[in-house]
Amino acid sequence: MRELTLLCILCSTLSYSQTPVSFQELGLSFDLPKGWSGQVQEDYYVAGHESISGIMVLFQNSATNATELMQLAVRGIVDEGIQLNVSDDFKLKGSNKIEGFYQGVFNGAQVKCFAIGLINNLGSGLNILVITTKDAFSDTHITEAKKLARTVNFFEGSDTKATHEWKDYIVNRQLKYMHTNTSSDYSGGSTGTSNQITIKLYTDYTFYYYSNSNASFSSQAGFGYVDSTKSNKGRYNIYSIGTDTYLELLFKDDKIYEYVLTSSEEGHTYLNGDRYFVVDIDR
Predict the structure, then answer these.
(1) Range of the domain at 81
(2) CB-based burial, 157-196: b 16+ in 10 Å, e otherwise
(3) Is the pTM of this model over 0.70?
(4) Tens digit of pLDDT for each residue in 71-122?
(5) pLDDT digits (tens, 9 = 90+) for 22-46
(6) Distance, CA of 57 to CA of 63 (rounded, Å)
């Protein structure tokens, strides 16, 4: 779970779903307090209220104990357009929960935020943030976040049916994308581009990634050619959230690629809308 730019989504644009909310693969569920509704936005769950200002944002944490969770919390939250710093010391509440406040700039506005961090002894934990402008922040925001936190239930996560089906289909195979384009003009000149991507998904959840792009042109003035090749390795995940299934590539250089996996009635496979051929891994 990564970029915080998703927090800038306006609540008015959300297609809301109602409580209860359960994520089988993440191993967690919760009930939204009365008046709140929201939806998954990439790696976050974002909710808005009928009359309470601001938004509630939920996302995973990787902490395994209170000390580690506290260290993550006091770093603050910094991203494009977002700078939230600790405004009051975070406090340990029991053995598996911390609470505290942030304040700073969010999408150009001065905001205040109440945050709750929960540890999950079975896997990834959960962070709950309620954010609004400093002038609008009240005890109500704290109360609503605590209401939600009390309903959080952690359990042993398991693959959904969709994840099982995609794993059966693409693991131990390679995904190949190929696209070429050529054109010519009235003077007899021509241009051409070619793009190829190969993703090999091994059974130990490692992958090999290869891409090649080239472009050429010819004209009365001469000929030109540009070629770029990249290859890398890493680990991959296949998981589902809501109705979408994702392929996530975690490169060794910390770069991350994420694709939405879809298929057509004809059986064609698409990654982020681009058609890929699924073939034997040694082909």
Answers:
(1) 4-154
(2) beebebbeebbeebeebbbbbeeeeeeeeeeeeeeeeebe
(3) no
(4) 989 999 888 788 999 998 899 998 899 999 999 998 889 999 999 999 998 8
(5) 888 888 899 999 999 988 887 789 9
(6) 18
> What pLDDT, on a 0 to 100 scale, did the predictor assign at position 148?
96
Final residue of a structural domain among 123, 154, 185: 154
C-beta atoms surrounding 246 within 10 Å: 19
Residue 162's identity, in one-letter code, is A
Distance separating alpha carbons of residues 157 and 27, to the nearest angstrom: 4
For the chain, the domain total comes to: 2
The residue among 154, 184, 205 that closes a domain is 154
Report helix, strand or coil for 194.
strand
**Confidence tier at 217 by pLDDT (50, 70, 90):** low
With 90 as the cut, is the pLDDT of residue 141 above it? yes
Residue in 118, 4, 8 with CA at minimum distance from that of residue 69: 118
Distance CA 161, CA 174 (A): 22
Phi-psi region of 94 (alpha: psi -120 to 50; beta: other; left: phi over 0): left
How does pLDDT run across 258-282, given as a tens digit for each residue?
Answer: 999 999 999 999 999 999 999 999 8
DSSP code per residue over 211-252: EEEEEEEEETTEEEEEEEEEEEEEEEEEEEETTEEEEEEEET
Q: Positive or negative CA dihedral for 265, 271, 277, 280?
A: negative
Q: What are phi and psi of 165, to 5 degrees?
A: -65, -40
Considering the domain architecture, whether residues 209 and 74 belong to the same structural domain is answered as no
Structure tokens, 250: 């975690």
